[in-house]
Amino acid sequence: MHVVVVVEEVVVVVVVVVVVVVVVVVVVVVVVVVVVVVVVVEVVVVVVVVVVVVVVVVVVVVVVVVVVVVVVVVVVVVVVVVVVVVTY
């Protein structure tokens, strides 16, 4: 009878240890997956922000270049008109 009780206690302890190990492994796997997902999402967000900033900078540079070209053309036309009017 004593041997049966000890075997039952050993079986209970083994089952509890197995359950605890399985729970710990599942928790570790879930934590690792969550960390990987968070890191991937952060990298994607950083890439998107960098792309948006680059596009905005390019658009601003293009607009500034167009404005400068238009101003230069207008100034040249005005100077030519003034020179033509003054000389004739």
TrEMBL record:
This is Uncharacterized protein. It comes from Dreissena polymorpha. Keywords: Membrane, Transmembrane, Transmembrane helix. The chain crosses the membrane at residues 12-41, 53-86. It comes from the Eukaryota.
